[in-house]
């Protein structure tokens, strides 16, 4: 609002630049609010999982089938990717496009290996006889973990799109904003995973 | 080959009911007529350029309005059919299956495809103008929201002739809505129609929160913002917190049906009551989502037509925001009978009663605004005045329902039906109608005819009481909802007949309103001043209909009713004319992507409905590609040169 007021005092040439930058900030705020809605989405899935926590219906339990080493590995991979996406932002703030793209690529590769591990875990579980249709517990498990995995996968495509745009256009107010929202999204998924790891896996095997 | 084609058709299309054959023919004829008219008058390009690709909030608002009026018609026909079936005992007008489908679609359409889009229409038509903004924060996203709603609604309505309507109640409680009891695509239509439009609603919530927080004209502090915008803010906060729950809940229901999951099933560790909890965690805020903006409309209308400042502005703000919070703590009152502990029931009973407090504050504020005001009884004010007693009674019966021990008697009876129709018609519908009459001249440049409007008004109002007052009594007499027929020996026949007469009166009221709109397009009083009601807020300071960039000059705001201040200062000569300096205006470009993306959503939804994975995959890939394409679009805005602004303003009679 204050910026709108400022706009009026400035001349035309300034005005155009300002209009853009201000709008990019609106988008970051909008993205924060989107993250609020995503929080509620995951909150609902967590609540569902909590209700279904012991609904094994005579089938396998989580403690019987979860293989922690793989999950711990993927946890560290995702945490590291959050760190590297932070490094990408630092590179962006220094104005180094190449470094920024490099860290984004590292982040994407880590994300990709996380997804690979998750898919192999799911395949393993299905072979052990735990499918989405086995019991309420496994329905809730696959939905919660799968929704997170779907978010990460979408994030990978998004990252790819932004890497291409950065190569073509370099750093502009628009690409800067895009990298900012992407990294917000990526950190958010990391936080969700920490909860997920604790509630589903650690508490699951206890 | 031919045989198998016929066989496919026999389960793909709904067959065997003359009413539905009639509907199919009329749908086909209407579509042919539309295509014919568009082709004959060479209007396809116009349709695409001016409407399908628009990102102008005013045009999007108009499209929402048209769609919601069509849905009001469809939901209203459903209501009339139900009332005809119940007019006399043992009637065989509708079969029980058909009746189930009709009460389901009536409820779903009225809440999700009538009330919601009418509300979004009003958001779009009014909020940016009230805030002194050129558009919403994210015009492209706004178009996405609209088209998602539109295609979701079309998908839902398609079930009527293709595949079969959902028939497990407007909220599709499991286990009835599970595969065992509701095989076929009907329930899937319900799920995906709502899911697709729900994503749009969520995006609108985000959009208007950012618009309200960041796009207000300079000087308009939050506590100087018009009341309607406050109510939109409250409603949007509820939207962003409640709609994700709906998204998850119906996605889980779909997983139960499609993938054999066990969330809400009776076996495999599922828990149907969890569905009830989840759906009402969205569902209760949802009714406040639709009614709070109506409160905002009444606040604007009362102040304008009583020619007084709104009484108790701050308490009004506190009340709308308080309702937004409280609304999330009352959901279990929809199923006090579920058999939970007394303390849980007591908690939800008390929170429900608490809601009456902020609502009561508002009623007194409106009354005190009118007190000693010079009231002019124009159409918006008529609906507002009719609303107050209606809503007070509806609220009081709501408090009766919140008394948990007594609720065991009222639960799912016609008493409940009468209660929520009274708050939803008396509150939401009356409110939105008041809003439509009030802001119509701003959008279209002419007023709606008073005389025909009066017919509509009185028919609606009398019809409402004739229809629903007997239903309170029927509830006490033991009639529960969703009965498709009853015997002569129940003693319900006379009250039911009266109720049906009332429904027809309301239907007649709607017909008068449609007539009123058509009549007024030609004969309605033109609004040449831009301020037909002697309004108080910024939207009345610009010409009607508003130019596409809304404000040639962004206003500087000093007070709550800033336009009123300017008018008063001009009247007593203290107004300081500030030098006007036109600048190029930054505007978003039109885009076809929202429409195309929503078409792909529709294709995906149709695939999900029929559980045709290939089709769902094509649709989702299309959605993904359109999003990808959008990400690569950088040329999304332009500047309107000063000359064009000056010319446009001059053509509207304003010289700069």
UniProtKB/TrEMBL annotation, chain A:
The chain crosses the membrane at residues 29-51, 71-93, 100-117, 137-163, 184-204. CDD domains: Ubiquinol_oxidase_III. It is found in: Cell membrane. One of its GO terms (biological process) is aerobic electron transport chain. It comes from the Bacteria. Keywords: Cell membrane, Electron transport, Membrane, Oxidoreductase, Transmembrane, Transmembrane helix, Transport. It is a multi-pass membrane protein. GO terms for molecular function: cytochrome bo3 ubiquinol oxidase activity; cytochrome-c oxidase activity. Residues 29-205 form the Heme-copper oxidase subunit III family profile domain. GO terms for cellular component: plasma membrane. NCBIfam families: CyoC. Cytochrome bo(3) ubiquinol terminal oxidase is the component of the aerobic respiratory chain of E.coli that predominates when cells are grown at high aeration. Has proton pump activity across the membrane in addition to electron transfer, pumping 2 protons/electron. Heterooctamer of two A chains, two B chains, two C chains and two D chains. Belongs to the cytochrome c oxidase subunit 3 family. This is Cytochrome bo(3) ubiquinol oxidase subunit 3.
From TrEMBL, chain B:
Its main location: membrane. It comes from the Bacteria. The keyword Cytoplasm does not apply. Its EC number is 7.1.1.9. One of its GO terms (biological process) is aerobic respiration. It is found in: Cell membrane. Pfam families: COX1 (PF00115). This is Cytochrome c oxidase subunit 1. The lineage of its organism: Bacteria, Bacillati, Bacillota, Bacilli, Bacillales.
């Amino acid at each position: 609002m204050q910026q709108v007021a400022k706009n009026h005092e400035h001349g035309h040439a300034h005005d155009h630049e300002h209009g853009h930058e201000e709008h990019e900030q609106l988008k970051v705020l909008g993205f924060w609010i989107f993250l609020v809605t995503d929080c509620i989405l995951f909150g609902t899935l967590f609540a569902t999982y909590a209700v279904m926590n012991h609904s094994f219906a005579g089938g396998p339990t989580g403690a019987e089938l979860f293989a922690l080493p793989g999950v711990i590995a993927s946890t560290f991979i995702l945490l590291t990717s959050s760190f590297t996406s932070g490094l990408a932002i630092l590179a962006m703030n220094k104005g180094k496009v190449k470094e920024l793209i490099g860290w984004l690529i590292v982040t994407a590769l880590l994300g990709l290996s996380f997804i690979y591990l998750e898919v192999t875990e799911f395949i393993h579980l299905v072979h052990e006889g735990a499918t989405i249709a086995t019991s309420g517990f496994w329905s809730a498990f696959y939905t919660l973990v799968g929704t997170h995995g779907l978010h990460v996968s979408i994030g990978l495509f998004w990252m790819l799109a932004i890497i291409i745009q950065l190569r073509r256009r370099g750093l502009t107010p628009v690409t800067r904003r895009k990298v900012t929202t992407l990294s917000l999204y990526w950190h958010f998924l990391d936080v969700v995973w920490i909860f997920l790891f604790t509630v589903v896996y650690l508490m699951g095997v206890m | 080959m031919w045989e198998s084609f016929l066989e496919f058709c026999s389960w793909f299309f709904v067959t065997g009911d003359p009413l539905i054959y009639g509907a199919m023919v009329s749908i086909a004829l209407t579509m042919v007529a539309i295509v014919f008219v568009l082709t004959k008058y060479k209007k396809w390009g116009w349709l695409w350029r001016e409407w399908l690709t628009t990102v102008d909030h005013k045009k999007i608002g108009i499209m929402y309005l048209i769609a919601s009026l069509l849905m009001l018609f469809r939901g209203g026909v459903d209501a009339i059919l139900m009332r005809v079936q119940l007019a006399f005992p043992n009637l065989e007008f509708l079969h029980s299956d058909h009746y189930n489908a009709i009460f389901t679609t009536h409820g779903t359409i009225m809440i999700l495809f009538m009330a919601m889009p009418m509300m979004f229409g009003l958001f779009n038509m009014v909020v940016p103008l009230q805030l002194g903004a050129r558009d919403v924060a994210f015009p492209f996203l706004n178009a996405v929201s609209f088209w998602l709603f539109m295609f979701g609604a079309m998908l839902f309505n398609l079930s009527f002739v293709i595949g079969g309507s959902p028939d497990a109640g407007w909220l599709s409680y499991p286990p009835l809505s599970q595969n065992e009891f509701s095989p076929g695509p009907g329930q899937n239509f319900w799920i995906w129609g709502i899911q697709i439009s729900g994503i749009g609603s969520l995006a609108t919530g985000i959009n208007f929160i950012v618009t309200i927080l960041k796009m207000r004209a300079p000087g308009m502090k939050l506590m100087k913002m018009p009341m309607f915008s406050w109510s939109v803010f409250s409603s949007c906060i509820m939207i962003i917190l409640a709609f994700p729950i709906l998204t998850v809940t119906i996605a889980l229901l779909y997983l139960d049906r499609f993938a054999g999951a066990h969330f809400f099933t009776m076996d495999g560790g599922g828990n149907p009551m969890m569905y009830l909890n989840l759906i009402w965690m969205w569902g209760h805020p949802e009714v406040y989502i639709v009614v709070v903006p109506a409160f905002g409309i009444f606040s604007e209308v009362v102040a304008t037509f009583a020619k007084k400042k709104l009484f108790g502005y701050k308490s009004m703000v506190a009340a709308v925001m308080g309702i937004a919070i409280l609304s999330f703590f009352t959901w279990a009152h929809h199923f006090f009978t579920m058999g939970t502990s007394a303390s849980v029931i007591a908690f939800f009973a008390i929170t429900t009663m608490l809601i009456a407090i902020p609502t009561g504050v508002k009623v007194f504020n409106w009354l005190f605004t009118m007190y000693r005001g010079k009231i002019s009884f124009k159409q918006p004010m008529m609906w507002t005045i009719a609303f107050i007693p209606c809503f007070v009674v509806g609220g009081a019966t709501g408090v009766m329902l919140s008394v948990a021990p007594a609720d065991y008697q009222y639960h799912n009876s016609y008493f409940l039906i009468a209660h929520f129709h009274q708050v939803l018609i008396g509150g939401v519908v009356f409110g939105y109608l008041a809003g439509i009459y009030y802001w119509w001249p701003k959008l279209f440049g002419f007023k709606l005819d008073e005389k025909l409007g009066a017919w509509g008004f009185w028919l609606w109002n009398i019809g409402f009481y004739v229809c629903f007052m007997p239903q309170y009594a029927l509830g006490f007499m033991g009639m529960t909802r969703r009965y498709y027929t009853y015997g002569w020996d129940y003693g319900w026949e006379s009250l039911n007949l009266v109720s049906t007469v009332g429904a027809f009166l309301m239907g007649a009221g709607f017909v008068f309103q449609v007539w009123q709109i058509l009549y007024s397009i030609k004969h309605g009083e033109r609004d040449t001043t831009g301020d037909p009601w002697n309004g108080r807020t910024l939207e009345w300071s610009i010409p009607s209909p508003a130019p596409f960039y809304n404000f040639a000059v962004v206003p500087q705001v000093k007070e709550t009713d800033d336009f009123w201040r300017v008018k008063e200062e001009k009247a007593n000569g203290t107004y300081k004319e500030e030098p006007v300096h036109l600048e190029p205006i930054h505007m978003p470009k039109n885009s076809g992507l929202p429409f195309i993306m929503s078409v792909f959503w529709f294709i995906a939804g149709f695939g999900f409905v029929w559980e045709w994975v290939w089709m769902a995959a094509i649709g989702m890939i299309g959605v993904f590609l359109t999003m990808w394409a959008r990400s690569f679009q950088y040329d999304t805005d332009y500047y309107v040169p000063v000359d064009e602004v000056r010319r446009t303003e001059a053509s509207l009679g304003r010289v700069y």
